[in-house]
Amino acid sequence: MAEPLRLKAKSASPGIASGPAFLAEEAPSAAERPDAAPASRAVGGYGALEKAIDISIGELEHLADGADAESRDIIDFQIEVLRDPTIAEATGARIEADENVVFAWVATLDAYVGELEAADEEQMRARAVDILDIKNRVLGALAGTPIADFPPGSVFVGKDMEPSRFLAHDWSKGGGIALFAGSTAGHVALLARTKSVPMVIGTGRFSAADGDPVSVDGNAGAVILQAGSMLIPPLAPAQEPAGDTQTTGGELRTADGVPILLSININDPAEIDALDPATAGVGLMRSEFSVATIADAANEERQLAIYRRVLEQAGDRPVIIRMLDIGGDKPLAGLENLPALSTSGLRGIRLLLARPEIARVQARALLRAAVFGRLSVMLPMVTFPDEIDRMRELFREEAEKLGRRALLHRMPPIGMMVEVPSAALMLDAFGAAAFFSFGTNDLTQYLAASARDDIDADAGKVAPAVLRLLAQAVKLTAGKPVSICGDMAGNPHYLPGLLAAGLRHFSVAPARRPAIRSAIIGLNADGTRAAGE
């Protein structure tokens, strides 16, 4: 039997505790849960922020009832920050400058956190966690969702822990704390010592499943994990790997023996359950279906939890996540004052570049999620090569910020959705793209000059033009990975033309896999029917 893994750490509070692991990043609070009702997350202007701050102060005052002196001091500090007029003024100025209330609040508090993290004194640096705690509590109040507790008797495992989360938890049933980073001068460490909760810090990131047995030795400064867990070493400076959008899993060949990849498209993280052994991976995850409101778009931890779940369940199979394709007929609740698509073309990557505060949050979540699987990032509605250059630079900037904060991350390959006819005709100009994926829904709409809700009526008539365009475009890809993820890929009627165009990777709705698989094995790679079919 394998020996348990013992990780050296630093004692923050003496004592020994054992229990099931609660992975903070994997099980976010209710304010971050992907299944929280979008209707409960309406976000308004400065009045909504004032109300959220009042709610947060009320919650903290409730925590203070009956609290000991040490706890009361910490709560009083947080309430004092919430009542600080300079915080309100800075946030109000951002709102008046046409910044959404959520991003205005996040930007103001993040600036405060940055100042504290840059301080020379450890006690000042430790207070950054208190400000993050305040930031997240107000975001939860804006979203209309309370901060969730974790199971009594658990060992809390995470990068850090918010003081209010510690105070709200019932420690009478045991439990402990193991932090990847942390500080012995931090408020949580102080509270743990006051309440005799075993706690260690500085373990470095380690891999364990939610619920795995974990022991915290606050006397010796160690964490003991069950056999099979492992330490994840720090990454070297983020490097962008070659496009990794294909896999040898899910063997499928045409009648004449040419390998074909068959992946699935998903809208909801729960649909990853449809990833059976015969499926190559996720060819398209539409992230906008998991980000319903501006509050969701501002919540980095919530997005990270969603992407991590999909990547971990996919295992060693690749997952392509498309950045938010919002605008036009895909509104984001709370994102106001956007001109109509018909007059501005503000959708997909154009909107993300026009509202970089949205793109930066998602970029950080994707960079952090990339360490949990074979992630590739796809940019939506790309029209011009400089759009990819600008987004890649944004990713590099956010990766540098994560590095300065010692947050584990990895630069994923960044490719593009090919859904604009002009882009399809000059793919050889998109040298910065790591891979290409054809979105035939929009290609069909623009080639036929159809309304978005009337594509089906024209799809059959314009299909020859779409197939001809695809054949030309595939020749321009210079050997980079190419796939097709639009509705045309899931229709057996079009498979002969798609194979003839040179496509070898198809991503379809899970329900379409059996029909497409059956059709492929009856066709040759040039699209002709196999003998005897």
Automatic annotation (TrEMBL):
Residues 150-221 form the PEP-utilising enzyme mobile domain. SUPFAM superfamilies: Enzyme I of the PEP:sugar phosphotransferase system HPr-binding (sub)domain (SSF47831), Phosphoenolpyruvate/pyruvate domain (SSF51621), Phosphohistidine domain (SSF52009). Its cofactor is Mg(2+). Residues 252-521 form the PEP-utilising enzyme C-terminal domain. GO terms for molecular function: kinase activity; metal ion binding. GO terms for biological process: phosphoenolpyruvate-dependent sugar phosphotransferase system. It holds the Pfam family PEP-utilisers_N. The keyword Transferase applies. Residues 1-20 are annotated as: Disordered. Transmembrane segments: none annotated. Residues 10-127 form the Phosphotransferase system enzyme I N-terminal domain. The keyword Zinc does not apply. InterPro entries: PEP-util_enz_mobile_dom, PEP-utilizing_PTS_enzyme, PEP_util_C, Phosphohistidine_dom_sf, PTS_EIN, PtsI_HPr-bd_sf, Pyrv/PenolPyrv_kinase-like_dom, Pyrv_kinase-like_dom_sf. Keywords: Kinase, Magnesium, Metal-binding, Pyruvate, Transferase. Belongs to the PEP-utilizing enzyme family. PANTHER family: PHOSPHOENOLPYRUVATE-PROTEIN PHOSPHOTRANSFERASE. This is Phosphoenolpyruvate--protein phosphotransferase. It comes from Rhizobium leguminosarum.
